Amino acid sequence: MLPFANIALIGIGLIGSSIAHAVRETMPTARITGYDGDPSVRARAIELGFCHDVSDSAGAAVTDADLVILCVPVGVMAEVAAEIAADLPGDAIISDVGSSKESVLAALAKALPGARIIPAHPVAGTENSGPDAGFATLFHDRWCILTPPEEAAEGDVQRVTAFWEKLGANVEIMDAKHHDLVLAVTSHLPHLIAYTIVGTASDLEDVTRGEVIKYSAGGFRDFTRIAASDPTMWRDVFLSNKDAVLEMLQRFSEDLSALQRAIRWDKGDELFDLFTKTRAIRRRIIEEGQDDAAPDFGRTHD
Ligand code: NAP
After folding, report:
1. Which atom number of ligand 1 is nearest to the Cα of residue 100?
2. Architecture of domain 178-292
3. How does pLDDT run across 175-206, given as a tens digit for each residue?
4. pTM, to two decimals
5. Measured in angstroms, how far is the CA atom of residue 245 from the centroid of ligand 1?
6. Residue 302: is its pLDDT beyond 60?
7. I need a surface site. Which of 91, 178, 222, 241 has the fewest CB within 10 A?
């Protein structure tokens, strides 16, 4: 039996459209209704055909739903939740895919008192956004972290778990605060560093922008992929996970100062030991199937 029969997706960009594609493949009898605040996204979703219906308002999209997933930037979750409050069926489960969880849970609980809220974060994505960027296998063998509030019914958690497992994800359950701390170090801080490095390189005066682009294969190129991620989404992630990001940034700055000192005082052993430790982490990521072991991240060169 399917965990849900009528799924409403509010926000049909990269993640919303990927969920729709994946549901069509794995739960073909489930019905998908989509809505997006941007009329051009709605029009494109109709052309691409990944939803059965595309509604003209968020409220209309949720009226028959047994699962509603908010796939909008974290900063507008509260606003969208308020928009659907009057039409959300009492027995529907409301979820989201936001990259930070404590603030989203608080926003949903405030806008939708008494609703059956089971927040989720599929730890899968690309640097592309919009309805054309979605694809059915995005969640395959990726983690999806659920952060249910304490009062959530066990049966609701199980249904949302079954839903994500059907999409190919591995599900982990975590407290929202802990999620935000873990993701601050594994995702948010790396994005911040990438934005900084690419920003610094583009502001340099003695090295031309042409040279930066021409010699980018020396590591810079991989930072530019991350730094190309959606500006709205990432602005919202940093503002909504402020405490955890600032805490991790403080730790990072201290470690960076230690490295600076090691270089200044020719402490080659310190550098070597650190680089040996970090290499082992890369090995574990590959062993656990979280990345490609092929040289150059599996890029093909024509
Ligand atoms: P996206 O491709 O930009 O899609 C978001 C869609 O929501 C856009 O079409 C946007 O329209 C629409 N939208 C914005 N405000 C809205 C509103 N008030 N009402 C209705 N629709 C609205 O972004 P995404 O990558 O799918 O990200 C969606 C969520 O997934 C975010 O919360 C993000 O943190 C989370 N997430 C992203 C990734 C990733 O790698 N991208 C991974 C995991 C989780 P316009 O932009 O055209 O206005």
Report:
1. 34
2. Orthogonal Bundle (1.10)
3. 999 999 999 999 999 999 999 999 998 888 78
4. 0.93
5. 21
6. no
7. 91
**Region(s) of the chain under CATH 3.40.50.720:** 6-174
**Lowest-pLDDT range, 62-66, 230-234, 298-302?**
298-302
Which residues lie closer than 8 Å to 52 by C-beta, 6 or more apart? 31, 32, 33
* 126-150 mean pLDDT: 96
Mean pLDDT, the chain, rounded, equals 94
Q: Say if ligand 1 is within 6 A of residue 7 CB.
A: no
Which residues make up the CATH 1.10.3660.10 domain(s) of the chain? 178-292
CATH topology of domain 6-174: Rossmann fold (3.40.50)
DSSP class of 173: E
d(CA 95, CA 121): 9
Q: How far is the centre of ligand 1, averaged over its atoms, from the C-alpha of 130 (Å)?
A: 8
Q: What is the DSSP letter of 295?
A: G
73 Cα to the center of ligand 1, angstroms? 4
